[in-house]
Amino acid sequence: MLTDTTTTPVYELTKSDKKFVGWHILFAVAALTVGALFGPLQALQAAGIDLYPKIDFLFIEINGVNSYYQGLTLHGVLNALIWTTFFITGFTTLVVIRGLKRGLAIPILNRIGFWMMVAGLVTAAIPLLGNKASVLYTFYPPMQADTLFYIGLVLVVVGSWIEGYGFYITLWRWRKDNPDTRTPFIVLAVVINMVMWQIATLGVAAEILGLILPWALGWVDGIDPQLSRTFFWFTGHPLVYFWLLPAYASWYAMLPKQAGGKLFSDTLARLAFWLFLLLSIPLGFHHQFVDPGVPAGWKFIHSLLTFGVGFPSLLTLFTVVASLEYAARKRGGKGLFGWIRALPWGDGSVTAQLLAGILFIFGGIGGVANASYNVNLVLHNTAWVPGHFHLTVASAVTLSFFGISYWMVPHITGKPLWKPKWAVASSWIYFSGMLIFSNAMHTVGLLGAPRRTPLGLAPYVPAEWNGHLFRVAVGGSIMWIGLMLFVTIVAVTAFQRKRLPEGEYIDVPVAESLDDPQQAPVWLDRWKPWLIATVVLIILAYGPQLIDQILGIELTSPGFTN
Amino acid sequence: MSTPSSEKTKMHIDPTERAWMRAAIVVLVIFAVSVTIAGFMLGIQVPTEEQRVNPQTIQDAPPWSEPGVREIVPGEKYDVYIVSKRFFYEPSTVEVPVGAEVTFYVTSTDVQHGFKIQDTNVNFMAVPGEVSKLTTTFNEAGTYDYICTEYCGLGHAAMFGSVLVTQ
What we know:
heterodimer, A: 562 residues, mainly alpha, B: 167 residues, alpha+beta, Immunoglobulin-like, five-stranded mixed β-sheet
């Protein structure tokens, strides 16, 4: 049962566009599948059950202990970087074409960008699988990976930029042809996300091209680890918004339609996205609260700016819930909270996104604690942190992408969703596992358990952690079952022989808004003032400290392998 | 933000949502004020810029050539120098008295490490080329482990040391 079956599509993507989107999703889901394999292994390791030696045939280099960190690196790179980036660029392609009701301006540009990303993935996979890049997805120098790992990452990022250029040109031409029409909100949302990504990734580009590659290639003897961290986190926090904003776009502009309602406020949805462009980047020092080389004053400023980005997040919470309530009441929902039951919980796509939203409320609350300057002292690098980001990237984002896939795969393949009831079940299973896992991770983190550590081997683990670590193992394993069910459903859907009945068509759900988009103020449809403000704020919030660190650069750290 | 010429610039906001927006701002301001009070009036501070060093030569001269405890004022004030290395801390145990003000100076001579003393607010990165510094007071006697919280290589999980707090 899918929400939106119709015989007359508003605008249909061409076969070749659908195929192109499909390639994105194929690589995304493949990366998710391989990366997620290590999730339960890490979770079980925490409880003292080490299955790594049992699967060492998967690794080119066999080494029992080493496999934990190699597995953790694969888990982070494939799930946090590859699954997200490939899915997001694919989803953005579909939204831009369908939202503007026209093809990409220069299709070949997007294809070059995409295949560059694939080339990057393959290039990075060689050292990753060969245990030559077990540096985790933050790859902090002076721990050094094989050069191919960095080159692969550069190709993925530059490929995503090129896809971005394809979107900008497409939107720019549409605006020239439609000077008096407001850009459809959903297109504005996903393109703002790509622009934000373009600006944010300049940090990691400077880190890899300016510091790491010359050092990894042996052109210079050393590297400045502190400056590397600052460049990395310039990208590192906006990275989470890059993952999150496409899910927000779906919650704002697709989910209400799927639930049978409308977007509560088109105007405020636009405002929220512009604020995300403005505020996502100049707050990276909140990941460096406990770094020795950054003055406390700058950390404090970035803490305040992080509270600032809480505003559009809270705005999103209101608008999304209001839109859902509107839909539920239209469906006969009653009561202060009773309307929640009237939402279409039988629809796997809707359920996945509703559960994603519920988990994200906890993720958001935990995020405020992380961002709170000195409160961070009790949390930094504890298990609380992965507990937190599994509620954001692995719940709000990943579960939403499950939900999107449940209509998108049928849409692009013209095939019916396989086992729709299992689709509903997959999200509930994943959700249940996540509740257990994330709660245990937060708790054991507060008790002092470090992240990124095979606690099954650590000599300092007190008995009081054990119960929580057991729950980590249980929750992590349940999540994996839900995730594998998702993978199976989309794989069978895509590769089955069965097609949708003649004349039946699964459309892209695009919600109308309660207010007329044409009534949105002009300043919410202008790029220039927002881009200027974004750049100015970055210069103010980062400029002086960045210049200080660059002028004080000391290339004194040689490389170390793990 | 400049408002370009157009008739349609008035923004419609639902009254409920307007109230929500106000509440959101109030809540965020409360968070910011709380953090400010805790940081600058109660003195719960994060590490700040301390000193740049050369990780390759730092142990050639004092105080880093002989890391460990320095008694500044007996029973009251101590400095502790700790070097993080793969995969141990130098020294691996330090002893300080209950109730004294203890300042930890930590650096690394190889990769990035973490340094977190359990049950205290001392938690920071040990970055080669930098010195991390935080001050704390142990109000109860006992053993407080300091553990490495950043992946530093194959032996990372075994990297820890202990503060022995004595009466």
